[in-house]
């Protein structure tokens, strides 16, 4: 179990990935995302998650380069993730998308590159392109996002490389126990996007009671729950105070009973798109 913001999990190819990172979905390109990323790295974050669809890779790259210099860090000390968007999926188009992301970020390599959604009829060719850039050493690890068990089984039937990560919507209203168990059995690290349920959980009485016991916020309790379940988590914020708060989750531990209580809040409720019925265009 991680005890520090910079603690890492070992992925199935031996690469070390921080347990907690900063997500930058909806962070505006330019000063907003630059300041958020610089602030996170200054305060000890070592993982930043972006995507071509977020349209802020240039700002992320600028912030990372500045932060490395300002905090006397080496490039290998910060873990950078991006993703290929749905309209860019397919073999050749994914190769181009990867190169474009690298160019926008202004980096020589990526730490993790993901297939953003399981686009029917395309994700296997997309995965073949990811295997190519991985074999060429342009990215240290490759994975998927928003894949259900049946998508993973289909992909694994032909894949040469097992995904290291499956990044999915995951929070107390959507606990995805079967998917977590399946990924654990296959050596695929589950990673939570929207870990706080887009704010819908922050006033839940059960969570407020647990938070009060530890002198923590509901957000901190949920992020701690992620970590104790063995799930990597990437809460997003552009506010320095919230970025700091989200990282302050290593000085308390939820009991087994509290973990089960939070698990029991599950409603199978999504706030984002459903990978089976409405993949974003």
From TrEMBL:
Q: Does the keyword Lipid metabolism apply?
A: no
Which residues are in coiled coils? none
Q: Name one GO molecular function term.
A: oxidoreductase activity, acting on the CH-OH group of donors, NAD or NADP as acceptor
* Keyword presence, Oxidoreductase: yes
Give a single Pfam family match: Aldo_ket_red
Positions of the catalytic residues: 54 (proton donor)
Enumerate the residues binding substrate.
Answer: 116
Q: Which UniProt keywords apply?
A: NADP, Oxidoreductase
Query: Can you tell me which family this protein belongs to?
Result: Belongs to the aldo/keto reductase family.
Q: What name does UniProt use for this protein?
A: Aldo/keto reductase
